[in-house]
Design brief:
alpha/beta, 8-stranded antiparallel beta sheet, globular, 6-stranded antiparallel beta sheet, 34% helix, binds fructose -6-phosphate, 26 strands
């Protein structure tokens, strides 16, 4: 939610800021802006809409200078227009800032500032902070920022500069901020990919930290001004991983990266020779007797698969909640609860707060997380990284399949350690899981792509879609519906196939495409009975079938085949045609797949 960048060094600041923002646009694209200092003054340029609007403007009249700040916005306070765009400046233009987060007490602060004669240009909460800094400023920017933030309540990653100082001051509470350490130059950004073209040496700024950058390097302090030491970490993601690399969209690239992403998730964790699983976490497998899974959106659906896998393979009772409900429903948590957060970004505030709620109840916590160094990885007791690499596309794809694979590993490991699975069963499933990268490559073969594209084109004018699945593939239906609505804006609903007759069956008519996951499983016959119920009412059935299933073709108007595999790993393979159906539908409708309307990838507001 909003991306911010900062730069100070010998090079052209505008180019570096714009390059950084282009990697952060997934965080919001309601407007973009930069402010660049040249030693004498600070010039600001900002435009509503996507970053391209700003870059077109800068082409005609670039902003010269070697330090500056930038922002890409996901609007919260005030509509997306030029005025509400960041950076925000004081009336005299001396102080400029960019902000990601929400200032909760901004109305009360604004009232006071208005009484004291300040005039506001924008409707944003962020502008209030610029005025507070101005009030506190007496020649020292660092001290003024510190004094202003002492009055502020809420979440922020804030980057500030002043026309009279070749200096950038930044601070963080809740919203993410990472600092890049270059050779004679320093960088700031909301997320790692924005900096990969410039440096791999990064410091993850933590809650309550302030950082002061100048030509000599950096200092980190706490909010009282005491020095703080933070480790410089070397990030092993390469810059190319955050580029489109010849694909039309990041989402498309990330769909095709799944074989590699899954190899990375499984790497070093599956031991074929011993037929066992080893996890790089120090969790005592017998230290809990119930699990709570907490997540949002796609990560929640990965958690839904996790529930099936953990209960079936490890026989641990699992409760599953969307994070925004969990944190307020007063869940019953004990010191024998393992609370699992699932998150690509590791920053989603609802999930993080859900975990804090579990911690207050005495739970042990584990994160299934993609982003290295993110807030959750620091706050939770254990992190099982999914190692999917940077995911830029707003609609999650490779992170989903990697998260589900991480749940498979966890369930197998717990089943093995707690003795709920026989040695032979673990060895068999290890062997099956090992095949995942190959199975996903097969699911992405040209002929299959062609078939999904044809189906997408055939139904692209549908007003609604229904997705059905059962058992471990019930979540696959939910994830398929979410992907479709997110990027094509076609209304889609998902139901457990057996539940359809209890209401949603009323929706079925000859216009409704119904996607049914009907791959090899214990429940296949029951699923096919549900398909018959749809057919009998004229619904247009698109079946996802396992390769070689010639018997059930007769029940479908269209069939999408997927490689045959064990039921326990099938949700990972079956996610692929769902992702492709959404992608090709959006493509056919001419939608901007990487920038779906109203969405942002990292949701750091409640
Ligand atoms: C959907 C999607 C979102 C995220 C959700 C949680 O494609 O990407 O639903 O899954 O906002 O985000 P993370 O995983 O970063 O916590």
């Amino acid at each position: 939610m909003c991306g911010i960048v900062g730069y100070i060094g010998p090079n052209n600041a505008q180019d570096i800021l714009i390059s950084g923002l282009s990697k952060l646009e997934y965080r919001g694209y309601d407007s973009a802006g930069i402010a660049v200092g040249d030693g004498a003054c600070i010039a600001t340029r900002k435009k509503a809409g996507k970053l391209a609007n700003l870059t077109a403007d800068l082409e005609h009249s670039p902003l010269p200078g070697t330090f500056g700040i930038g922002h890409t916005r996901w609007a919260t306070h005030g509509p997306p227009n030029d005025t509400n765009s960041h950076p925000h400046a004081t009336e005299n233009g001396d102080i400029v800032l960019v902000h990601n987060g929400i200032i909760e007490n901004y109305l009360e602060l604004k009232e006071g500032l208005l009484e004291r004669g300040h005039q506001f240009r924008s409707d944003t909460d962020s502008e209030v902070v610029a005025h507070l800094i101005e009030e506190a400023y007496a020649g020292n920017l660092e001290e003024a920022v510190r004094a202003a933030l002492a009055k502020v309540r809420g979440a922020y990653a804030l980057v500030v500069t002043h026309k009279d100082h070749r200096e950038i001051v930044a601070a963080r509470t809740v919203s993410p901020l990472v600092m890049g350490v270059g050779e004679g130059e320093m960088f700031l950004a909301s997320d790692v990919p924005a900096l990969l073209n410039y440096t791999r040496q990064m410091v993850f700024i933590q809650d309550g930290d302030m950082v002061i950058l100048n030509d000599d390097g950096y200092r980190i302090t706490d909010m009282q001004g005491h020095p703080v030491q933070r480790e410089v970490e070397t990030i092993d993601w390469d810059a190319e991983a955050a580029e489109k690399g010849g694909y039309d969209a990041y989402m498309q690239k990330e769909i095709f990266e799944q074989p590699q992403a899954l190899s990375n998730t499984l790497l070093g964790r599956l031991h074929d020779d011993q037929g066992s699983v080893e996890l790089d976490i120090e969790l005592d497998p017998n230290s809990f007797d119930r699990i709570h899974i907490v997540a949002c959106g796609t990560a929640y659906y990965a958690g839904m698969v996790g529930k099936y896998l953990l209960e079936q393979l490890a026989r641990v009772p699992v409760e599953l909640d969307v994070a925004s409900e969990y944190r307020y429903r007063e869940p019953v948590v004990t010191d024998r609860t393992l609370a699992i957060a699932v998150s690509q970004s590791g920053e989603t505030i609802d999930t993080l707060e859900g975990m804090r709620e579990a911690m207050r109840g005495g739970a042990q916590t584990l994160g299934i997380i993609n982003a290295k160094g993110s807030s959750m990885t620091r706050e939770l007791d254990h992190t099982l990284y999914v190692h999917a690499g940077p995911e830029i596309g707003v609609a999650s794809t490779k992170a989903y399949t990697s998260m589900v694979s991480a749940f498979l590993l966890l369930a197998l490991w717990l089943g093995q350690q707690r003795g709920t699975l026989s040695k032979e069963e673990v060895a068999r499933l290890v062997h099956e899981a090992r095949a995942l990268p190959r199975l996903i490559s097969e699911a992405l073969s040209d002929d299959r792509l062609g078939r999904v594209r044809a189906v997408a084109q055939k139904y692209h004018q549908a007003r609604d879609y229904l997705f059905l699945g059962r058992g471990v593939n019930n979540p696959t239906a939910y994830e398929g519906a979410l992907k479709l609505k997110e990027i094509s804006y076609i209304h889609a609903e998902a139901y457990a196939a057996g539940e359809m007759k209890h209401g949603p069956i009323a929706l079925i008519d000859e216009h409704l495409p119904v996607v049914v996951v009907a791959t090899e499983s214990r429940l296949l016959e029951k699923t096919i009975s549900n398909v018959q119920e749809v057919r009998a009412r004229g619904g247009r059935v698109i079946l996802i079938l396992s390769d070689g299933d010639t018997e059930n073709v007769q029940h479908a108007e269209d069939v999408l085949y997927v490689p045959r595999c064990d039921e326990m790993i099938s949700p990972i393979v079956n996610a692929v045609p769902m992702q492709l159906l959404a992608y090709y539908t959006a493509e056919t409708l001419g939608k901007d797949v990487d920038k779906p309307r109203n969405l942002a990838k990292s949701v750091t507001v409640e």
